[in-house]
Structure of Saccharolysin:
Amino acid sequence: MTPHPIAPRIAPSCRIYSNALSTPLTPRNGSIDLVSEHKPLLQLNIPSPSIIFISKLDKRASRRPLLLLLLSLFILLVAVTLASSRAFSRLGSLVNHFRFQAPRTILSRRQLVTSTMAPDKYRNPPQAPPLFTATPESIAADTKKLCDATKNVLDSVTANVTADKASFANVLEPILIDENLAATQRRILTFYHHVSTNKELRDASTEAESAFNDFGIECNMREDVFNAVDAAYANRASQDLTKEQAHVLEKERQKYIRNGLRLPAGPKRDRFKEIQKRLSELEIKAQKNLNEEKGAIWFTPEELKGVPSDDIDIDSLEKGTGENEGKVKLSFKYNHYFPLIKYAIDADTRRKYTIAESNKANVNVPIFQEIITLRDEAARLLGYDNHAALRIEEKMAKTPAAVRTFLDDLRNRLTEGGAKEINALKEYKKKDYEERGLSFDDSFYMWDTSFYSRIQKEKEYSVDEAAISQYFPVESTFAGMLKIFEEIFGFVFVELKPEERARLSPTGKAEDIVWHEDVLIYSVWDDEASGSSFNGYLYLDLHPRDNKYGHNANFNLEPGYVTEDGKKHYPVTALVCNFSKPTPKKPSLLKHHEVVTLFHELGHGIHDLAGRTRYSYFHGTSTVLDFVEAPSQMLENWCWTPSVLKSLSKHWETQEQIPDELIEKLVSTKRLNSAIGALGQLVIGLFDMTVHTPESHEDVKKLNAGRVWNTLRHEISGTKGPEDLGEGLEWGNRHAGIGHFIGGYDAGYYGYLYSEVFSLDMFHSFFAKNPMDGKEGRRYRHTVLERGGSIPELEFLREFLGREPSSEAFYKELGLASTA
């Protein structure tokens, strides 16, 4: 939906069970809790770097061997202490960011080391971090400058190149060089509306995105530019093009065709342009509504019985007055949603909350209806049967029919397993009601699934999510994750402390290179064995705040590419998450599913940082949509590996690692309710396909999206809903709160399941036996991650696998026989 090729990569926040169709739905990439065999693996063996101390000793020291010996022993002791972490204070200094009011002595020695002790070779990046000092006025001015510069480039190309002389060098190259420069600024200008606390800045950023989109539509429908690109394409046989250049030439030509340049000039083309501009306006408005959503519901403390105070501190919540006297206010954000839906004993509380949350974005209902109607009209103008046919043509699946076959087959094969899992949960509900002296009518509702799944996990597997989270404070867990990426892929992460930020900042001010005081920055390098080269910057914005992007995502802020004079421009990538904040009594603690989410999002960031493409067009995560999740989905498997979980864990009070028996119990739940989770994903994917594949344009105009969603959920999930309590099938509009449908994943949500096929194939082929295999990790980095989308994805998959991709591992993880 934006002129640049990269949309935010959104990732999971929790397991999506069938009732998660009433949750804040971020795509759950590994949310299916797939089946896997887990064998004990070797503990991580991550070496510590050497620390060299240089001291000038007085000549008199030579006459004092005892003194020299004692001094040497003291230095050695300090060195051993400081070398306990491979990452020095690059990781440990996170404690200063996540500090809570607790005795300093509970923090490990490794955590207290400062990042300024990183070796000099990792302290002088060749590129400064970007500035976040924009004002509403500067955003508007910079937006105009970038659009004017691009127009000048396009005008120059069309004025100076004739069809017979058109080539990649004189047509595509100047356009791509301009895109490199424009993307470097544009993505940050449009990023403010996701993260800024300043309303005027957010509004200006939103306006900039709208202006860029409108300008992009105009550019993409310039017939003179298309004719030049088409001529360069026609002359391609006489040009010595690299694979990346040939690929981008093909992609660019198709882009113009898909933007109406094969339509005859006149009413049809004009209508197509009108639709594209209206769609841009509607999609931006809908996303703004989601970012600024402030819905809430009031409950009495009694209605919240069972919810742990560590998760929701009732005393800290806003107190009601008037008709809400005696009640407290809960939002629909993650930090309230998941604790309530999993722990609130009162089923009526969960029911009320589920219905209210499903209607939190009703303002987007008419917007969504207009969007799907306009998309269908535009696709038909171009000669496609529907919007899905237009969108999927350029992806790995190629056709809506192939996607339907994949989803329908999976649905049929999972239905029986889903029913068995629901029946097992129903037994827990029956026992619960008997113990509480309540009448049980054999009904099982969508708001029951997470609640009784948690009870099942505790009773049957002795897994207490809250107890496990004590071993995963954010600071040490994230530090451990970076160590894993160092070991597997050969990276080095150096956190930039305030003094380092000031030194590297173009303005000399540390605060100017972050958008909020909570944000952390890392410079990222190759390790010594790989040449110690700089790779880019990693930003981390972990906690929720008002008007911030509400889910968990990775945003590319500056792409990597090769400049016109042959130098490297390095990428800048940001993890924007919403994990609970630390309290005066405890640090921020991660549930296991949040550990998986953070690892997944970091995987997207690593994909960006590993990118080695000539053009920003294909950098990092700029792959087709039904592959882009595969690298991060593959990495989620590390969070179900015993040795990795052990290495990531450290109890926030005792500093002890998680016991092996607890790890064994946790890993045994990986497969728990996997059919329910996959069916939940299928509901979303099938809804997406249904609204984007109407039989006729009249059908989409009459379509009731809320009814379609609730019908699919009711038919597929195996659970009852408000419709079974007399509310009908129009009780909620969950679809209106899902940003994917208006954020680039339209007719593409199937990709979360589709890319799982590739992720599991790669993992089981090369990493299942030894996830810490640095040799395979570096081969994967160079073969898959570095290439971004610069060649067709199937080509580098074949190269990495050494064969055609297989679905065998995917079906095995789901406990199903392979169709291969």
Summary: The radius of gyration is 27 Å. The domain at 1-47+87-290+347-820 is CATH 1.10.1370.40 (Neurolysin; domain 3).
